Amino acid sequence: MKQSQMFIPTLKENPADAEARSHQLMLRAGYIRQTSAGVYTYLPLAVKVLHKIEAIIRQEIEETGAVEVSMPELIPADLWHESGRYDTYGDNLFKLKDRHQRDFVLGPTHEETVTDLVRNEIRSYKKLPLTLYQIKTKFRDEDRPRYGLLRGREFVMKDGYSFSANEKQLDDVFHATEKAYRAIFDRVGLNYRVIIGDAGAMGGSDSREFSAIAEIGEDTIVYTDNNDYAANLEMARNVDKYIPTQEPELALTKVATPDAGTIAEVAAFLQIDAKKLIKSVLFMADGQPVLALIRGDYDINDVKLKNFLKADFLEMASDDEVKQWLQAPVGSVGPVGIAEEIRVVADETVTKMINAVVGANEAGHHLTNVNPGRDFPLAPESVTDLRFVREGDTAMDGTSTLHFTRGIEIAHIFKLGTRYTETFHANFLDENGREQPLIMGCYGIGVSRLLSAIVEQHSDEQGIVWPRAVAPFDIHLIPINLKNAEQAALTSEIEEILRQAGLTYLTDDRKERPGVKFAESELIGLPIRITVGKKASEGVVEVQLRETGENVEVKKDDLINVLQIFLTRSAS
């Protein structure tokens, strides 16, 4: 391919609004251009990378027995009403009407669509398991699109859905897909972790996230020093080694705590450790009040709370809702003497507390010497792990230490169970002729997000450094001066040698200075650069490996052997 025929609009400087390295480099190197906030045009080089990633995905996924379909991006809202997600999915859902005022959504994911499809077609266990997948554009109305392709409103995603007759079939598909995903991310050259994740708005359980290690990542990955455990921060667990003091229970006492509302302020005012306080936070779970309790030195993990409650929608109560249910302002609320309609859920740390301090449900007052069970009911079924872990905490094995790093979520797999099939009455007849709901799994990869994740890990100060498996071309062929007959002739010979060897190349045939060509070559980031220069008359070219800068002079007859060695290094 001649570079003069390509559309590669490079930039000399980083755009002011581009924060992430990958965003900066893909803009500067002419891979993408922003159309609107969170919406991008993929330029020719990016399209080539996307096609390579998609080819790898298709090859590995179809090895599991999955088959490709293409479902519509414009989805009737009736399907989302049927699942209940039209109202609970949140503001990220694009909603629109057609000319007949019928409601539609732009698909952020396709659980409803695929379940509707399968319920009308699969009626017997003999046709199970079945896994359908697609690679499609998805839409989510992100409040703050940022970091280029890492958080967009329109993006390319591979989403797959399995339907099984029993749990063993689901397990087999789940593990086969996890293995395929590992192969995909190994092939594209990513450093990643497979971690315990939250199913979120998808529903279901037994969730695994694939996270590419990167400082710009918005996810916090919690892992142990022995690498036996890794989880998303929202799902991570620890062992609380705090040993409470052994003391007799004292009489409940109300004390004035003027101008003290936060844990730190109350602890300072009463001159006690934060571990002596019970933090009380009111949430609204599917419209019902829930008071969550935790020891004062921890923070409440709302994801764990939502999962424990099996709620579709959970948010912290507003100031007005707090006053409505607890007759007190935020900072003065507690579990003692509250209305029976308010469900109380406590973190495990609360059960060990003796003579604790809680809000008195009266402005500027707290209760001291509060004891769970004596002063407020605390049923065993309402006690769970609600806490965010902290770096340096002890892992669940009791000996390892928890560490934090940042990561980009690149894929997620879930066991959905019958969350959608029961709602949609997607049933099949089992071996005994009994009607059963299909059992589902869901498997997603952020395809366009992979571009950013790869560039975050494979780049330097000069530009992108593509692994060969996904590079838009194998070779960047740069003749210094095509007006020189010997250079022009050797360039043509090398193009034919590369073509015969099955290697792809981009020939910079532009009338630019060598310095410009070299700088843009490093920015674009193809694995190998071949320079045809002053030794063209001798049939000698310069070959450079982009990743390491290693540079050798090679006769054209030895070129393919050297390239194969260099390309093998670049493929790792």
From TrEMBL:
<protein>
    <recommendedName>
        <fullName>Proline--tRNA ligase</fullName>
        <ecNumber>6.1.1.15</ecNumber>
    </recommendedName>
</protein>
<dbReference type="InterPro" id="IPR002314">
    <property type="entry name" value="aa-tRNA-synt_IIb"/>
</dbReference>
<dbReference type="InterPro" id="IPR004154">
    <property type="entry name" value="Anticodon-bd"/>
</dbReference>
<dbReference type="Pfam" id="PF00587">
    <property type="entry name" value="tRNA-synt_2b"/>
</dbReference>
<dbReference type="InterPro" id="IPR004500">
    <property type="entry name" value="Pro-tRNA-synth_IIa_bac-type"/>
</dbReference>
<comment type="function">
    <text>Catalyzes the attachment of proline to tRNA(Pro) in a two-step reaction: proline is first activated by ATP to form Pro-AMP and then transferred to the acceptor end of tRNA(Pro). As ProRS can inadvertently accommodate and process non-cognate amino acids such as alanine and cysteine, to avoid such errors it has two additional distinct editing activities against alanine. One activity is designated as 'pretransfer' editing and involves the tRNA(Pro)-independent hydrolysis of activated Ala-AMP.</text>
</comment>
<keyword id="KW-0547">Nucleotide-binding</keyword>
<dbReference type="InterPro" id="IPR044140">
    <property type="entry name" value="ProRS_anticodon_short"/>
</dbReference>
<dbReference type="InterPro" id="IPR006195">
    <property type="entry name" value="aa-tRNA-synth_II"/>
</dbReference>
<dbReference type="InterPro" id="IPR033730">
    <property type="entry name" value="ProRS_core_prok"/>
</dbReference>
<dbReference type="GO" id="GO:0004827">
    <property type="term" value="F:proline-tRNA ligase activity"/>
</dbReference>
<keyword id="KW-0067">ATP-binding</keyword>
<dbReference type="Pfam" id="PF03129">
    <property type="entry name" value="HGTP_anticodon"/>
</dbReference>
<feature type="domain" description="Aminoacyl-transfer RNA synthetases class-II family profile">
    <location>
        <begin position="38"/>
        <end position="467"/>
    </location>
</feature>
<comment type="subunit">
    <text>Homodimer.</text>
</comment>
<dbReference type="InterPro" id="IPR002316">
    <property type="entry name" value="Pro-tRNA-ligase_IIa"/>
</dbReference>
<keyword id="KW-0963">Cytoplasm</keyword>
<dbReference type="InterPro" id="IPR036621">
    <property type="entry name" value="Anticodon-bd_dom_sf"/>
</dbReference>
<dbReference type="InterPro" id="IPR036754">
    <property type="entry name" value="YbaK/aa-tRNA-synt-asso_dom_sf"/>
</dbReference>
<dbReference type="InterPro" id="IPR023717">
    <property type="entry name" value="Pro-tRNA-Synthase_IIa_type1"/>
</dbReference>
<dbReference type="Pfam" id="PF04073">
    <property type="entry name" value="tRNA_edit"/>
</dbReference>
<dbReference type="InterPro" id="IPR050062">
    <property type="entry name" value="Pro-tRNA_synthetase"/>
</dbReference>
<keyword id="KW-0030">Aminoacyl-tRNA synthetase</keyword>
<keyword id="KW-0436">Ligase</keyword>
<keyword id="KW-0648">Protein biosynthesis</keyword>
<comment type="similarity">
    <text>Belongs to the class-II aminoacyl-tRNA synthetase family. ProS type 1 subfamily.</text>
</comment>
<dbReference type="InterPro" id="IPR045864">
    <property type="entry name" value="aa-tRNA-synth_II/BPL/LPL"/>
</dbReference>
<dbReference type="InterPro" id="IPR007214">
    <property type="entry name" value="YbaK/aa-tRNA-synth-assoc-dom"/>
</dbReference>
